[in-house]
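Throughout our pipeline, every protein is held as a single compact record rather than as scattered files. The record that follows is passed on verbatim for readers who wish to inspect the format.
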Amino acid sequence: MAHAESGRGHPASSEMYVPRSMQVWRGLMNWLAFFLQVFLQILRGTPSLAQFLSYIGLRQSFLSSSSAAAAVAAPSPAAVAAFKPLPVVEIPLQDSCPTVHAGSDSDVSITAADDDDDDLLAVEKLTIVLDLDETLVCAYETSSLPEVIRSQAIEAGLKWFELECVSSDKECDGKPKVNYVTVFERPGLHEFLKRVGEFANLILFTAGLEDYARPLVDRIDKDNLIGERLYRPSTVSTEYREHVKDLSSLSKDLCRIVIVDNNPFSFLLQPLNGIPCVPFSAGQPYDDQLLEVLLPLLKHLSLQRDVRPVLYERFHMPEWFQMHGIPASGNGF
């Protein structure tokens, strides 16, 4: 009876007993099965790191951290689609001048200029209207210019000078107010003025005040290559923007006049005559826009009887203004 009770009290131990040799054999078979899976995967194609880690049970912890990092580094497609920056205006250097036929949306129809040599003999000299700030130079109030920006620009080789501007405003004691300005010249400025002055009439047109702009231009144009200077009072106000530069006040014939300005809204009244250039700042010491981009384009335009077809083909400014809420009727067509 005791023996029977002892047998009923330990049935599990007799059933769970597995010889050590059998345990070793099962472990060996498991490892062989694992390597067989890896081998078959290699035959199908090289396994990825994630696949290999999944075989040995490490995929979850490894990929959870890498997936989180990827999510931070790469925005979701929805976020990318929601961000639509303004188109960057680039100036191509093509020498061809194809015929332009604008669509009905812009209400523009312009044919390409005739480049016949005999006709060009009778064409008047090209007139180039140049903006000042962020086009030819960049200027900062000396007291507010960070020393690190100043030092880096000078060390990189940017030409600069300090300007004392006497304002028409008065101090509390009745003396004229004096402002000190640090000016950085755009690389290639003097050579640019000299070379474009060989084939064009130059006009400086700035929305800046004369008290500031006049002494500045005296410094950068010591050879008097710029034939005429216009300041803020010469700009006009429109329904859409203030300080607009109306080219019709300079020439009744818009076929042979262009304006170079970093602010396209400055020429919204004559969008087909505008060249939107890249803004210049002290943080761009290796800028090459004047000599490598603008000069070849202006030289090409000087050979055209009408500059507008070439500029329309390259920049499509009427459509750009329409995208910014300025209709074609306000573009002066």
